[in-house]
Each structure stands twice: as structure tokens, then as C-alpha cells.
């Protein structure tokens, strides 16, 4: 193992990394976007991949089975904000957007999508008045996500108080329209049931026939993907769980095999991993 590559703190994580290095051509590397490849910013529309993310992925991708970006964003938005299209080395990158409801393949440059849940349109129409009715939280705002709707409290005068106060009412609203509420880092997302990163990741790993899997994320929405990797490990497929470090989400860091300091740390890890794979096969 390349000395600059950080060592997982768990035996399962060490086994996962060893399997990836031993047979990289069978490995899937899957990554969240916001908070993992891109810094969290006050306005999600201003989020962009870390400058080193695309070069690191382009160095790694040709040496492994597949790289997949798994995100709650629309697939096309993640592609634009990530700068993933038309990059040499990323010919077979896949973006699983809206938790797998949309899929962009670099080889075709097209997005495939399933039908939109009717409850999303109903919630979208009701949400502004609903928020006014449950109490004003200055700075709280609604993000339109196409197949989901999110309420952000990060800009509120008291982000944590607004988050806690809105959680139960928004959960009731989601249930009434056949949706589920997914809490995140100062964001509450209303989306269809059965849409999560764990389902998307597990289906993709099966499709590829992966011999090992690495998943990196930073938020509560990444916990289902962590659970999917843990289930794969219990069934004999080695895996490595990486937390893009955050003091806000200890539930993720507590379950990770390895923690790195945010997107900058993820980029450094991917760069070192690409070099480790190259060295292992030299």
C-alpha cells in the first residue's frame, strides 16, 4: 500500500481497501456530490466541484470498474456543477441523480429518468402557505429540486431552532402527500419513498457486478448508502466507507472506516488512491 494513502481504522475497511487494490478492475468507487466532491455553500446553486475533483477522478476512473456520483440533485445539474461532461478519462462515469431516479452516462451524454411522483407537485404548491402557517423563520427558503422539494434553514436567524421546529410539521405534510421527509445538514427534503442512495448504490453495484465498493459521503442522506455497503460486506463483497469530515454529522463519522477533512481531503484521498492502484499494477 502506498504510504501516503490513509489507513482505515476498522478491519472491514482495511479488507475493503485491500480488495480494491488487489482487483481494481472489479471495484466501484461511488461518491456523494455536495459536501463530498463540492463544499457546502449557503446557496446550493453556487456549489461547484472542488478544483481537484475532476483531475483526481480522471486519474482513477480508467483503472477501476466504474466511478459513480450518487446525489439527491438532478443528474444534469450535478454534471454541470461537477464539470464531468467531455472529460478524458471519465468516459464511463455515471451520475445517479435524484437518488437513482435519474441517470446520466458519460458514454452517451444523456439522462434517463423515471416518472415524477404526483405528490411532489402537490407539496410544491402547498409548501409556501404551509410554512407561513407553522410560523415565520426569517431566512428559511424553499429549493425546487424537480423530483423533490427541500426547505433550507441554514440562512435562518436560528438555523438549528428552525430545523427542529419544522421537522415534525413537514414530516406530516410529506406523509399526507405520500412522500417521506429526509433530514440533512440544515435542510429538510420531501421526496418519494423508495428513493435513497442505498437503493441506488445497491442496484448499480449489482449491475456492474462489483467485486468491491467504496462509498464516500458527508450527510444523513448518505447513511442508506453506508448501510448498503455494510450489507454487501456481510454478503461477502468487501467495502470501504469514507466520511467527508463534518462535525455536524457524527452519525456518519461514527460508522465510517476512514474520515477525511471535507472535499479537499476527499480529493487528496482519490489522488492517492489512483497512485496506489497504479503502483499495485505496475
How are the SSEs placed, and which strands pair?
Layout: H1 11-22, E1 27-31, H2 53-60, E2 66-70, H3 75-82, E3 94-97, E4 102-105, E5 110-113, H4 118-134, E6 141-144, E7 149-152, H5 159-176, E8 180-183, E9 187-191, H6 197-208, E10 212-217, H7 223-234, E11 239-244, H8 250-253, E12 258-260, H9 262-280
Helix pairs in contact: 2-9, 4-5, 6-7
Largest sheet: 8 strands, mixed
**Average predicted local confidence, pLDDT:** 93
Strand order of the largest sheet: 5-4-3-2-1-10-11-12
DSSP E strands, number: 12
Taken in chain order, the helices and strands follow as HEHEHEEEHEEHEEHEHEHEH
SS content category: alpha/beta
Distance between the termini: 13 Å
Work out the strand percent.
Answer: 15-25%
Silhouette: globular
Q: Any low-confidence stretches, pLDDT <50, length ≥5?
A: none
Helix content: 25-40%
The oligomerization state is single chain
In angstroms, what is the radius of gyration? 19 Å
Folded structure, characterized:
This protein has 282 residues and is α/β, with parallel strands linked by helices. It is built from 9 helices and 12 strands. The chain has helices at 11-22, 53-60, 75-82, 118-134, 159-176, 197-208, 223-234, 250-253, 262-280, and strands spanning 27-31, 66-70, 94-97, 102-105, 110-113, 141-144, 149-152, 180-183, 187-191, 212-217, 239-244, 258-260. The strands form 2 sheets. The protein has an 8-stranded mixed beta sheet, with helices on both faces. Strands 6-7-9-8 form a 4-stranded antiparallel beta sheet, with helices on one face. Helix 2 (53-60) runs parallel beside helix 9 (262-280), helix 4 packs across helix 5 (159-176) and helix 6 packs across helix 7 (223-234). The longest helix has 19 residues, at 262-280. The relative contact order is 0.19.
